[in-house]
Batch of 2 targets.
Target 1
Amino acid sequence: MEPNVSVGDGLPPSAASCQSLGHFCGVAGVRSPEPVDIPRTLFYMLFSLQHRGQESCGIAWEEEGKWRSRRDMGMVAPALGRYVQECHLSSLGIGHVRYSTAGGSGIQNAQPIVVDCNKGRIALAHNGNISNGGELRNGLTAEGSIFQGTADSELILHAFSRSRKPDREGFLREALEPLEGAYSLAIMHEDALVAARDPSGFRPLYIGHSGSKTFVASETCALHALAPMDYREVEPGEVVIVDDAGERSFFLEPKRPPKRCVFELIYFARPDSEVFGRSVHAARVLLGEALADQDSSGLGADIVIPVPDSGNISAIGYARRSGLPFDFGLARSHYAGRSFTLPTKDQRELMVRLKLHAVPEVVSGKSVVMIDDSLVRGTTSRIIVNLLREAGAREVHVRLAAPELKWPCYYGIDIPDREQLISNRLDPEGIAREIGADSVRFLPVARLLEVLNGDRGFCSACFDGHHPFPLKPGRKDDR
Amino acid sequence: MEPNVSVGDGLPPSAASCQSLGHFCGVAGVRSPEPVDIPRTLFYMLFSLQHRGQESCGIAWEEEGKWRSRRDMGMVAPALGRYVQECHLSSLGIGHVRYSTAGGSGIQNAQPIVVDCNKGRIALAHNGNISNGGELRNGLTAEGSIFQGTADSELILHAFSRSRKPDREGFLREALEPLEGAYSLAIMHEDALVAARDPSGFRPLYIGHSGSKTFVASETCALHALAPMDYREVEPGEVVIVDDAGERSFFLEPKRPPKRCVFELIYFARPDSEVFGRSVHAARVLLGEALADQDSSGLGADIVIPVPDSGNISAIGYARRSGLPFDFGLARSHYAGRSFTLPTKDQRELMVRLKLHAVPEVVSGKSVVMIDDSLVRGTTSRIIVNLLREAGAREVHVRLAAPELKWPCYYGIDIPDREQLISNRLDPEGIAREIGADSVRFLPVARLLEVLNGDRGFCSACFDGHHPFPLKPGRKDDR
Amino acid sequence: MEPNVSVGDGLPPSAASCQSLGHFCGVAGVRSPEPVDIPRTLFYMLFSLQHRGQESCGIAWEEEGKWRSRRDMGMVAPALGRYVQECHLSSLGIGHVRYSTAGGSGIQNAQPIVVDCNKGRIALAHNGNISNGGELRNGLTAEGSIFQGTADSELILHAFSRSRKPDREGFLREALEPLEGAYSLAIMHEDALVAARDPSGFRPLYIGHSGSKTFVASETCALHALAPMDYREVEPGEVVIVDDAGERSFFLEPKRPPKRCVFELIYFARPDSEVFGRSVHAARVLLGEALADQDSSGLGADIVIPVPDSGNISAIGYARRSGLPFDFGLARSHYAGRSFTLPTKDQRELMVRLKLHAVPEVVSGKSVVMIDDSLVRGTTSRIIVNLLREAGAREVHVRLAAPELKWPCYYGIDIPDREQLISNRLDPEGIAREIGADSVRFLPVARLLEVLNGDRGFCSACFDGHHPFPLKPGRKDDR
Amino acid sequence: MEPNVSVGDGLPPSAASCQSLGHFCGVAGVRSPEPVDIPRTLFYMLFSLQHRGQESCGIAWEEEGKWRSRRDMGMVAPALGRYVQECHLSSLGIGHVRYSTAGGSGIQNAQPIVVDCNKGRIALAHNGNISNGGELRNGLTAEGSIFQGTADSELILHAFSRSRKPDREGFLREALEPLEGAYSLAIMHEDALVAARDPSGFRPLYIGHSGSKTFVASETCALHALAPMDYREVEPGEVVIVDDAGERSFFLEPKRPPKRCVFELIYFARPDSEVFGRSVHAARVLLGEALADQDSSGLGADIVIPVPDSGNISAIGYARRSGLPFDFGLARSHYAGRSFTLPTKDQRELMVRLKLHAVPEVVSGKSVVMIDDSLVRGTTSRIIVNLLREAGAREVHVRLAAPELKWPCYYGIDIPDREQLISNRLDPEGIAREIGADSVRFLPVARLLEVLNGDRGFCSACFDGHHPFPLKPGRKDDR
């Protein structure tokens, strides 16, 4: 993955436009029979899920019988920090971090969405993308529903309200089963916390317990941030309900083959997390090892360096398998990524220079294997390779711990238009020429899936174009 | 009216809690066949309507076929100023300023609300209060509608969408006619600007024309801010539609007797505005004259001073009729009302001292007639009377250009709970004792209506309890 | 005075560039043998002196034997409010508000300046301008002094340190007596509060007592803001020292004829203040009456209106003497003057429209006498006269409660360059033509001084060019 | 080094109080005969030196013959970013980042300081600490100098001004030679850029050339950030002057044995920098190798992990020499360190949990060697060791790539009071018990110096108490 060279985090995404790939969201939820400071707990959980979305964030919680919510643009700490200075005793709450595509930016799409309807009070936090959302939206609109935002989350709430099943399990089933695509949901409904995951299981979702408290989170790192606790994956198609009657779950129909998003393991999830029942760190080491196997005939390289931090762990795997020394040939500024708009856009190269630094001691005179997780547009990689050359690197071999990225994603990842993806324009030799590398090599899809136990069921549509659900567009609000 | 002693404007209302009476909203709209910079135009109009709501504000506009909107908490200049730095060519837009009751505060209630529904795209800005809103909301909820906020505006949009009449006039009629209470609306629907006013005409609404451009605003001051233009009142019950086919209007059924809010003339509207077809300034002079008539037997006073600025104009009327000299015995700081939270709440007296200053030269040794527009809780008046005494006033006679305020308003004014209203606790002599005045006198309701041509039809429910529409509560979301 | 049409207060002065006349500063000081919350007390005093300077502000105080200070750009409430949320027990402190000329803007010129020198710890807050400051600065620089800012205040501190007199009275005398020009000073020196005023008495300075506490302030309004108390003027040339040994004062040599700044009474001071031993309000009424006397042969006017708020009080005087009715023909927005940068500078007219509103009811069809305090560039007056015409005024007669402004001030007022002053370009008839008025009339200097008891000694150099001290420039740092 | 667990960067240091060791400053300077955008160039250089100081920052530059400066509290991007949006053509400028001890915080100590004096205009940026500063300050104060801040930098400027040598080399020599302690200076004097370094060479200083432009910076990373260029160390005791006459240098008397700060190599400098003529990265690898040599008898460990990022490079060295695998057992949040004040101080453990995450996959069931650069108070290390235990680590052996930290620094490092340093309270076994480690081991001073070529002359006073210059305190301003 090209490093995020933005020095404008905290700004709307249009200002921090150099983000290469975007992830839609992360969700969190807490239920405690004994009232505790749930807004602050959610704050810590969302802080740990910040990597899943930096555009907006929000929390909703019960407090003395009332429902309160705070949503704001920006990062968790500045946007929500002021609301958790005081204790808010609560028994139920959910939270959300959001990264949005350009079109749907704005506070009206921030989550959780809290509504009052014939099922009572419901709040919803959603990670994913409903591939038949446009179609369903058209249907609901025809029946008289109004849509205030463009996010699929509003659609799901409408579906809850439109259901004629009065009971919780009933309307959840009736609303969720027609949905195609990806959703991992944290829901508040009256006194219940609900966690639901689509039958394909595109996005991760975990549930944990500590004492009488229940926690729901996109990744286990949000649970670790609080305390050691028992946890398990919410299964694909599973809906878990926790209310005064206890915890129970049911499965949505129809069952579907699992389609876990392989990019969660490659790039999105935090390395200390478990997603899809496996360690993210371990998966990345395996990918690095598989890359090294490809070069086993020998590159004559001297050293393996990661593009920090996205390439760190695969580089460990590559170094171990290849026997080449691992070193930090690129240093990363701790202070980049702060509020600052660079004067002009053509200074992208300067932005990378402020963020990443080649270490001459490590690379001078060396043949370097540079490991990154994937390649999107190639522009940043070109600059990094040049930094290494300036620092004296004799050869630069770029290795990507992923296949060639060529297709859009309809299940929650924001991938640039196809024509912007370098792998749609050039083969590896062409890419090497364009970014100034001596060689460039990817991991084939088959190998990727083999390494990650493909029989467990992964979605690799962004690499191979095999979309489990095609996109069914509807008339979309053009905001 | 007690002066607003807040030194915390720009903060959420809970911080600036000393606001005495709150007004719900102001609306604005622009349509121009020739694209112009409508966001900036709306900015100037909303700036001129700022006195009608300081909690949040927003604009929605068409731009190159897309609809865009910006809503934020706070005052017009800081909240929207940054969005109007660049020109946005547009042919249609509406705007809103909002003051909210404590319960309904928050960005989810900011307007305009923009929705996508089976009638197409609609944006709505609403001033008023629907007295059967709870009841209607219950009905809509039962049918499957979801409510994201607590404001009546969302209700109106649901009603548009639920209507089976496909044509614009049809669904407007079908949605609006069941509404009881107050609404002055600026609406965007596809290519049309719509202005609508409830049949009782509680809240003001004006329409103006300049060249081919059409403007809608709560008060004429928002039109004057742009340029001299022709304007007229949108009549009670009138709905004006301006689209590519031109401008036309129809009237809602049933016709009702007009119930113009008398408090608009007493306090809310800006003195340079016309509302309800009459000059606000002129009305206030008449009220001051009527007050003087009540004291015609002689108070032995030396001087008439207003509480700035709410008592300014009535004081002019009082002075003219009584023959007593008018003077500025209280000065007002230009710098109060800025962002600042006073350390402790018990420093209310200090807050008033920072905001208002008695001028010893004017009042020392004098018997003073102090004119204000109305009396709510009486706390600020007590402090002001004390300031005058400290500055040497021999006698202080408080005269209010309104009747005793005793009842709630269901049509868009935020009046404190009945037990907080000083006129529900005390008679004028008791009030005089409590605030330290030598005498206190109000204007009787009958006299008020007589002065203002009562046959034109005013609502004076907050003074006399004669509510044209009783409140019909529904199950309300408790946010 | 033309109204301040800025809608950008709180911004640096370059952004809020339409301020017509600027005042340099206001000072405050408190000493209490019993420790009290002096930072908060100074906050309230500076808030009341905000009209004397809006660019930067600061406070310095003793706390537990240490000296602390806070200085920041901007208005008192946002800049200092956060520092007074908690109580800081203290026995001594001073404060300052500053308006600066364009060149000297910046935090390095904010006051109070706190220094450590051979006289111990000294903090200084200065209102005025030293006309031989450049010359003295050259001398000190030659001896090895370094200057970090461009303000005269630093010069005074250097002079204290350079003095060989070790005792407080000694070094104060030695440092202050060579100064020419204007200074009203609040000084902390070790345990003492010192108030000092130049022998000409250009700028006002008051001292008040409440219990064992001593207060120093530029105007009495800063004392009234706290509590009723006894106060007196610090005399021209007087230096008052308050320390553990009690309060005493001495007079600087040589004695000079008093040269009180007449503009303080005309415009700068707050109307509820006393400055130079007389009520500001009373002075302005007298000026209005004198204006009316000039028109005694009859204008045939119908009504007298002030430009709010600068013309308010003189308009009262004019109306009383002329017998014409006083009314509010111009309304002023309470919400202008907030943080907002207008998109383009050529929208000055729009800025005035947002700030001031003509009231058609008052002026339509009338011959209007419009009273303002003075005329600087004339640009705003032109717009206001046009507003009155648009609202239907038949005739507009502009009357200024001051002479024609023609000269610079070397003693603390920021007057635009001579070529920008309309009275240097045009005679009253020419001005009337340029601003679109039917007539324009000023108050002659002789009449002004006569009205204000000229024998008391006023400086009217900005009107007549008779500068008590010529400017003696030195080599100035060109920041 | 314990990781900085602050989640409050950007706030004043009192809020972000968990910083373990502080560095005083970084300096930068640019001179270009051809005017270029020097403020922006300095911005990029200071951005690259941000790790040397986060409390305040500033730039001063020549522009069209005038000197301008901007100083503000906080980080480079938010504090200075807005000033570099527009181009400022300039031929000369300097900049500074500052970290301050608790006492001397505040804008009055921000640099560069710009003064006007008998040598003309001088601006100064200083990194270091003058150990006889108090004494010299007393002397200058006695002669009449005034001090506005507590920083030594003001002292140096006074000394320039007091010198009777009129020529540049003369007054530089006369002012600098009496100074004891540490200083690396970037100075603007009229048309000249001056770089000066104390004869002991405590702090690094580099000079680089690119075309006709000259650059000065504390570390080479600030030069690399701009472009590849030639550079060299400014030698201990060397003063380089670059003016219209070209570049020349002289050496201060007396010559002294070099005393380079060893902590620059251990922790402060950026790994991609060269300081003291050697690669920081290479030095840290050597320290890690030396640590491994100490454990050569065998620990039975399974894995080597760094505390990111301070232990990264030494961990590489340890892993290589020991043959143990290197891995990322601790992950670091990219989003911590943003503006956020944690509700209560006792949540330090939670703060570390938000910042650092143990990776179970890596450490579970393992005996772990955890490498950090040094140990200050030990509180954070205790929490980290506990994180590793929670993640399943069987044994945790803590290795520090530095000796035991026991003494204060008088030359520019902010070390906590002696009683807070864990190595003054406990021996390694005691430390191991307190932080919950199975063992703790440091690098002896002799070995450290041997590894780093001690004959080159290092200061290791913070480890061994051998201070080259004792502290000579004077009467200090107690702010």
Target 2
Amino acid sequence: MAGLVVRNIARADSSVVEAFAHYGVATVHEAQGRSGALAAYITPIYAGAHIAGSAVTVSVPPGDNWMIHVAVEQCGDGDVLVVAPTEPCEHGYFGELLATAVHARGVRGLVIEAGCRDVADLERMRFPVWSKHISALGTVKERLGTVNEPIACAGQRVEGGDVVVADDDGVVIVRREDAPRVLEACRAREEKEAASRRRYAAGELSLDVQGMREQLTAEGLRYVDG
Amino acid sequence: MAGLVVRNIARADSSVVEAFAHYGVATVHEAQGRSGALAAYITPIYAGAHIAGSAVTVSVPPGDNWMIHVAVEQCGDGDVLVVAPTEPCEHGYFGELLATAVHARGVRGLVIEAGCRDVADLERMRFPVWSKHISALGTVKERLGTVNEPIACAGQRVEGGDVVVADDDGVVIVRREDAPRVLEACRAREEKEAASRRRYAAGELSLDVQGMREQLTAEGLRYVDG
Amino acid sequence: MAGLVVRNIARADSSVVEAFAHYGVATVHEAQGRSGALAAYITPIYAGAHIAGSAVTVSVPPGDNWMIHVAVEQCGDGDVLVVAPTEPCEHGYFGELLATAVHARGVRGLVIEAGCRDVADLERMRFPVWSKHISALGTVKERLGTVNEPIACAGQRVEGGDVVVADDDGVVIVRREDAPRVLEACRAREEKEAASRRRYAAGELSLDVQGMREQLTAEGLRYVDG
Amino acid sequence: MAGLVVRNIARADSSVVEAFAHYGVATVHEAQGRSGALAAYITPIYAGAHIAGSAVTVSVPPGDNWMIHVAVEQCGDGDVLVVAPTEPCEHGYFGELLATAVHARGVRGLVIEAGCRDVADLERMRFPVWSKHISALGTVKERLGTVNEPIACAGQRVEGGDVVVADDDGVVIVRREDAPRVLEACRAREEKEAASRRRYAAGELSLDVQGMREQLTAEGLRYVDG
Amino acid sequence: MAGLVVRNIARADSSVVEAFAHYGVATVHEAQGRSGALAAYITPIYAGAHIAGSAVTVSVPPGDNWMIHVAVEQCGDGDVLVVAPTEPCEHGYFGELLATAVHARGVRGLVIEAGCRDVADLERMRFPVWSKHISALGTVKERLGTVNEPIACAGQRVEGGDVVVADDDGVVIVRREDAPRVLEACRAREEKEAASRRRYAAGELSLDVQGMREQLTAEGLRYVDG
Amino acid sequence: MAGLVVRNIARADSSVVEAFAHYGVATVHEAQGRSGALAAYITPIYAGAHIAGSAVTVSVPPGDNWMIHVAVEQCGDGDVLVVAPTEPCEHGYFGELLATAVHARGVRGLVIEAGCRDVADLERMRFPVWSKHISALGTVKERLGTVNEPIACAGQRVEGGDVVVADDDGVVIVRREDAPRVLEACRAREEKEAASRRRYAAGELSLDVQGMREQLTAEGLRYVDG
């Protein structure tokens, strides 16, 4: 319902949230059972950022960023803004001034299923944004939306307080209540991969390391010479 | 009408044109009343360029770059080539050789609603291009188009002599006759934003700095605790 | 036919393949008669890579990367993996672990008409990938495809052993048997362009260097003053 | 959480749901304050269908339609299936056999943010589908998803029991609890439009019927002769 | 300049305009030298309409259809509305009520580089629309644009009074002053095609009818048996 | 190699080819192991056509349809033209005149990964086309391509003589040598589906008809009440 702001949402334990920043988006996506990844059209405005934080969700009308201004007040240290318009929209909802404001509150970054602008300034400030568009088109401040209500963003449901992990591969959402379990699964996956990596680097084949040959033959794989 | 080249077009005063390079595309777009921005699919081939110049417009047939060769002669110091095909086309109309030619004449960059190639070389030369595609597909030299006739480029009309401003946010067109007025509006906007920026950086909220709270309440904004 | 792996394919002479790395994709595309370029939606995951190698082709089911594991064994020094799914698919088929494995075998890079992940790691390793998507979405290992059978990739047919050249402009395929002839044409083209480049840099016009004025007039080009 | 099926969800009163079928999607969207419309890429497979029903929501893995089979049992007379994959996917999840099954249970239609197939048969059966793709690509039955959990579909959140209205303009979602209020607003809007329609058909101008001239002048509208 | 309405524009002679309705868009496009066609993403909302008329051009802000209401008054018998937003936008700017209003004034149809709604009603009224989107998303009436100023629409410049021809193949624009000449070229082309058609229907080959064989051989065409 | 025409290709037995017209594209795709479907962007220009035939493949340069004229002579009764440009291209390569020519030779339809025009005429003639675009943009006749060489079309390899099946769901390719086996699999699949259809129409659930409940429970499916 447009006009509602939910304050003081529950967030995952900060030690859990921060630990996610050690794992790539691909790892987190796998660790929670191949789910939670935003659509591939959400891309970083510059390469090399890698963040984890608690979602503050914002639903905005098309071409209107008033609710982002409202949301700033609900943000605290370690949060990530997650913004979706109620209709597809490529306007630049967010630029360097808003980044200055949220940076002052400890916000780690922005995920937005719309446009972003002042991207050269944002890179200079090292304030990372994952957006659908880069667009100079400005917005107005006329209509209400919501803050910290559940939203649909780039194909995933996001709730205020969910954990957001973002890097050059994109963005993944972890339900707040699943965060400790998924974090544990990330650790386990990384350990297993480290072992494989050493063997692959030494020239071993995954066909052998993972014991795939027998099953491949059973499925009917056959070799001929060219 | 294909085959027409307009020489010696009027351009805005060079001091005005150059001054635009101090303002971002987003600022210019706002300052002239939220208009003139090319579509967001026009993107820079490398990050960090920021130019302003006078448009030399070129209408080209699909897959044919002959008229760009014709247009080179019409370019002078401080110009920006603005090229649109008469039909949607992703060919690479422009590469390192043409860049060498126009660079020698003082051209600041290229905006093209089609493809560009040799992008590694262009970055090395620091010759900036804003294009719809990066494409190795070559073009022929068989048919005529126009130079300095009005064109439609990425959703905007552009005339020879209009001011073109381009940065990492995209491209904006300012009508030649509006340039002094828009430049003044850019200055005013920047001053106002500088004041806001200082307050946001100090932790103040735009809700307070811009006095939004009363109107938000009037519109029905309400707060609940999560 | 799913399940077939062709071993020991013929490759072009390695001195020929390596020589292609001195020529840009745009040059190769022109030199073989404007053909062989993959669609422009195949883009590099980071800027600045430039490779040439022999194709090892892989046809994969949607969302299933098992056959890439099979293909690793067929790769040798100087090869380039070229992967296409049997259906459009944006999954991240390839990441840092597979890159470690193929890097150990001397593979130069990957071309894939689907998604790739761990792109920050891949850039760190300087293992170049040209892909349609960047996507964290993981794949399974359940169904067979083919290795070194002819495939359709991004609008071109590719056969095992064809020469692949890739740079920031995209990717071009050269038939194995045409490679020596096309390489010769690249050399000729570069020499011709070098001569033009010097004259353009000195301020000469292509209208004069290439003698275009007469034909332009014959086609009806006319000049008016603005 | 994959694997959960919610049975016996609350639905809006059937007289309310059925009454929505008298109002077009555009009217419903306006009547609830310009919200709830799915993205424009969701289109009907044939023209002329117009339905209203209660949503049974299904979250499906990519390329896997097993959960639609599970969902059939949860459907009753007057329901509409609303299906979204956890990842973007163009497979044809639904065809004539499933349509036969749900038709036998009184289901009114399907909304799916993926592909649909057998569309000629579906039109012959007059079973309407609004989909993102038409695609012959088949799916497997291997992994779980959810039924009647909230989903993100084409940019909107949908919950089991929400009201779905669909016609040639697309699809709009009305929250179950808002349905009576929105229905009333639809009625009011239609009455007002009927009065305007009569006057427009008689040649009156909306400038006069809606009294716009004064405000237009105040905004600065001016007329010149061509 | 937003806010300007040009009244009493010059239009082509009505007998010329009407005669264009006998020629398909493809024929007109060819007859004027392969130019003037709008981008292929502009498609008819229903099949079978074929119109010709004089353009009344409208530039509209994103999501705001106020200027279409203003434009209605400038429309007369035989006109076609041509509407483009100043920014890419998929809102449904035009529906059945506006169609009722312009139909009462003799308008033949609408071309819009944005969305249209109430398409089932519009088909019932046989009021044809060529649009970029079909979308239920409503618009507001808050900001000014222009009427009968030149606009950029779907890749082409359009001026008030230009001739618009539209059918199932799309839309083509003919400059007002070129209309008599292009009409004559259409007639000539149709006559030539009628002769070819009779010969092709009788089984003759275009290779012979158009005498292509010699040139094909000269270009190097050769035949082998499969 | 541009310029090559292969005559007298082998085709599948005509009784086999014709029998495929009784099976939908989705059925054929499933029957040959979920493969061979062209990308979903290849759509029919009108609803209701359903054909099967032998492929005559044509590779064409961008914007140039000369080779289609060459290909006409290679077509016979029961063939289907399959055309792909060497570069992405939306031109209208094929219209009513060419349709007249190939219709006179018994050609069943056209599949083209580019544009088609005169679609109203083509529907009137009931000459079906599956294309990527509908576009009035005309082509030239200047450069050579190939006929009946293997091509890449919409993501699949196609060879002259392969079987093409097309309906409202899209297009599927069957290798010539696999045709009898795939036809047999289509028959078996249809029989099995007919049995399921009767039970579903009577209200039985696929959960029971296909015995899925046990495996679903084993995978962890659980039910809760809403």
